[in-house]
């Protein structure tokens, strides 16, 4: 099978045609990969609270080492992700019919039922993905062998990532001296999800436009061989180098709100390469449904209210407004 047949039709443009697409970020050229790697490193085995606090305040993103996830599991996930995406577009679509796993492309913005919130061909993102709600993983089986293997691996992976998210969140809450009733329900296992992505090659366009995540924390297992993720730090775009056996943690909007803006929800984006695909596996964790986020900067809100507002804004304006909608003394 031609690799192009595995791409969603809208992402099958030959490179030279893609130049007509509007590129929303084209004025912001990134720096080349920096050496040495400037991204803060946090060691989960011997957690340094001060270093963690600084990374959360100054970057909103860090590299995690000694995370305890077996390297074989990280590599197996990457291999399986590549295998899964190399299937034909139609078989990926069909495999997700009547499944809690959603297959999507052209945008990472989905409604809770898994429908893509599209904004016309001008604004497509060069990405396809599977959206996997973790709490439903044990309740079904898949007939497509690579999807079924993915389901089994993700059950194992989710246990590790939930442990990591809880450890990090508890350390952050302690650093911030937050008086939370149950830290665990801010990084709820019930609402966690994994997204596996493939970014097809193109010359112009972005895999993902500039955004902040809506999560409390996002934990990324990125392609060991292909870079693409960039983070905004002090008005400069920096490449987050792929380094094997490390995970990238970024703080999302919920963490920024919980911390009353002391911590940062990192602005980031994904660049695509013109001649090599990239894959990534991203875990997102959110507050439980009954958690009201109270802070000195925002009106109290739940994550569900935040998500509904984000979806409304994307549909109406074409982009997420995010935390600004909930700021104290705002009428919008
Ligand atoms: O694929 C990546 O490297 C990052 C993905 C991302 O930013 C997201 O899913 O929000
Ligand atoms: Fe993101």
TrEMBL record:
<protein>
    <submittedName>
        <fullName>Uncharacterized protein</fullName>
    </submittedName>
</protein>
């Amino acid at each position: 099978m031609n690799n192009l047949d595995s791409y969603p039709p809208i992402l099958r443009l030959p490179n030279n045609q893609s130049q007509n697409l509007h590129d929303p970020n084209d004025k912001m050229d990134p720096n080349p990969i920096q050496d040495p790697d400037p991204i803060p490193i946090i060691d989960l085995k011997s957690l340094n609270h001060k270093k963690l606090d600084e990374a959360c305040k100054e970057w909103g993103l860090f590299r995690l080492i000694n995370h305890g996830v077996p390297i074989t599991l990280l590599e197996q996930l990457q291999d399986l992700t590549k295998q899964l995406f190399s299937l034909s577009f139609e078989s990926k679509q069909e495999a997700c019919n009547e499944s809690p796993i959603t297959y999507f492309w052209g945008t990472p913005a989905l409604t809770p039922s898994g429908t893509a919130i599209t904004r016309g061909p001008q604004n497509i993102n060069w990405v396809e993905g599977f959206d996997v709600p973790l709490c439903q993983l044990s309740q079904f089986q898949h007939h497509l062998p690579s999807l079924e293997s993915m389901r089994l691996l993700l059950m194992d992976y989710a246990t590790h990532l939930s442990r990591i998210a809880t450890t990090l969140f508890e350390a952050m809450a302690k650093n911030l001296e937050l008086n939370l009733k149950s830290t665990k329900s801010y990084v709820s296992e019930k609402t966690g999800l994994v997204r596996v992505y493939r970014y097809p090659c193109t010359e112009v366009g972005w895999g993902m436009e500039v955004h902040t995540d809506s999560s409390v924390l996002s934990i990324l297992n990125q392609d060991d061989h292909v870079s693409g993720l960039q983070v905004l730090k002090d008005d400069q775009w920096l490449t987050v180098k792929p380094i094997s056996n490390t995970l990238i943690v970024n703080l999302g909007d919920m963490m920024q709100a919980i911390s009353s803006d002391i911590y940062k929800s990192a602005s980031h984006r994904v660049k695509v390469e013109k001649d090599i695909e990239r894959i990534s596996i991203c875990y997102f964790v959110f507050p439980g449904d009954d958690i009201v986020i109270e802070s000195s900067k925002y009106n109290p809100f739940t994550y569900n209210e935040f998500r509904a507002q984000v979806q409304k804004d994307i549909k109406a304006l074409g982009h997420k407004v995010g935390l600004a909608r909930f700021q104290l003394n705002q009428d919008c």
